[in-house]
Specification:
Elements: E1 4-13, E2 18-20, H1 21-25, H2 32-39, E3 43-45, H3 53-68, E4 77-81, H4 92-100, E5 106-110, H5 116-129, E6 135-143, H6 153-156, E7 161-171, E8 176-184, E9 192-193, H7 205-209, E10 216-217, H8 219-241, E11 250-253, H9 258-268, H10 279-282, H11 289-299, E12 308-315, E13 319-326, H12 344-387
Helix pairs in contact: 3-4, 8-9, 8-12
């Protein structure tokens, strides 16, 4: 009998301290208007004393297990996606496994930047579908306030701290991930990185003096990559899932920048209510971004049992990952299909509708690329005039 990975529990954890754009105005040369216009971010959460990647993970995991009514001892595996662990060694996943009391669980940390949660969810589903494990905790968590240079206004305004976790359990009912795509374009590996502190340039007085232990980002390359991959990956996984675009109830993208989300939304032809956006409350929380948005969507009633949701992430590496998920947290009771509601006729037209939709998405993307290319010289001229 085929097995499926069903999400039965979820939970989030964010620090109590909130850092607003007005707070940042007192720290660096920026303004609330500048930040909101360019990113859509209004505030972000940052850790206080005693709060770490491990403590946030622990809280989110406990909530997820409580939601699923599963004890820590019943968990078989813990996957933590993060680029900001408490220590380089040991892995934060082992710390969480111990503190949670998951005495039977294996644990490992996964590093795939902002795409990490999607990578982790796909990995968990594979472990379950092969029959190796019954219950897997997947965590996306970041403490980015410790990784950004708070004197660099180009990056410090973007990031925040937080955590989201889900419990994936084995199910005999078809549900969970219907299709997925994981990718990497290592040719742009240096578009988002911390130059110092690793094996190439170990931590030293020079690294500290040059502030190379903090994140540095090439915003233009990230923007171009993200907008392209969001539309491509979403189109690919929806087509591969066997669903039509009309069957998709919600899209939960990585919350990096409202401009990226808006552009992808226009290319895909998505109504605003079909796209989950909460970047204004959290900023970019990297691997925590998608599970936080998932939890918020559930709290707001935007995701119901039986819905189909697309998760799409992109980030450092450069990596991307997308999945179409059938949301069925409780055991499904099979119902007889009314002959009048038979999906046979609709299924015959799905390939045609998908082909038309894919063509429309590609056409909109090409038109927007051409428009941006034509407008770039004008924007540059305007900036030169304003500087004078």
């Amino acid at each position: 009998m085929k097995r499926y990975g069903r999400i039965t529990g979820w939970g989030k954890s964010v620090p109590a301290r909130v850092l607003t754009n007005f707070d940042l105005e007192q720290m660096v040369d920026t303004s609330d208007e500048w930040i909101v216009t360019r990113t859509g971010i209004r505030e972000r959460h940052v850790v206080g004393p005693g709060e770490t990647t491990a403590t946030m993970s622990l809280e989110a995991c406990r909530k997820a297990l409580e939601q699923a009514r599963v004890s820590p001892e019943e968990v078989d595996l813990i996957i933590i996606a993060t680029s900001t662990p408490d220590y380089l060694c040991p892995p934060v996943s082992s710390m969480v496994q111990d503190q949670l009391g998951a005495t039977r669980a294996g644990a490992f940390t996964l590093v795939a930047g902002c795409t990490g949660f999607v990578y982790g969810l796909v990995t968990a589903s594979q472990f379950i579908e092969t029959g190796l494990y019954e219950r897997v905790l997947v965590v996306g968590v970041e403490t980015l306030s410790k990784a950004v240079d708070w004197t660099d206004r180009a990056t410090c305004v973007l990031f925040g701290d937080g955590c989201g976790a889900v419990l994936v359990e084995a199910s005999d009912t078809p549900t969970g991930i219907l299709s997925c795509e994981l990718g990497s374009d290592g040719s742009d590996w240096d578009a988002l990185m911390a130059p110092g502190g690793g094996c190439v340039k170990p931590f030293s007085e020079e690294v500290l003096h040059n502030r190379e232990h903090y994140l540095r980002m090439d915003g233009k390359r990230i923007f171009k990559f993200a907008t392209r991959k969001m539309t491509e990956a979403v189109t690919n996984v929806v087509r591969a899932s066997g669903l039509s675009w009309d069957d998709i109830d919600l899209i939960i993208p990585h919350q990096a920048n409202a401009r990226i989300t808006d552009l992808a939304m226009r290319r895909l032809g998505v109504e605003p209510e079909k796209m989950m956006v909460n970047v204004e409350r959290y900023g970019n929380t990297s691997a925590a971004s998608i599970p936080l948005a998932l939890c918020d969507a559930l709290e707001e009633g935007r995701l119901q049992s039986g819905d189909h949701v697309v998760l799409i992430g992109f980030g450092a590496g450069l990596t991307w990952g997308a999945a179409v998920l059938h949301w069925q947290p409780e055991s499904e009771v099979e119902e007889l299909i009314n002959v009048e509601d038979s999906p046979l006729l609709a299924s015959l037209f799905k390939p045609v509708r998908n082909a038309v939709w894919s063509t429309q998405v590609a056409a909109r993307a090409r038109l927007q690329d051409m428009t941006m290319a034509a407008m770039t010289p004008i924007y540059r001229l305007q900036r030169r005039i304003m500087r004078k």
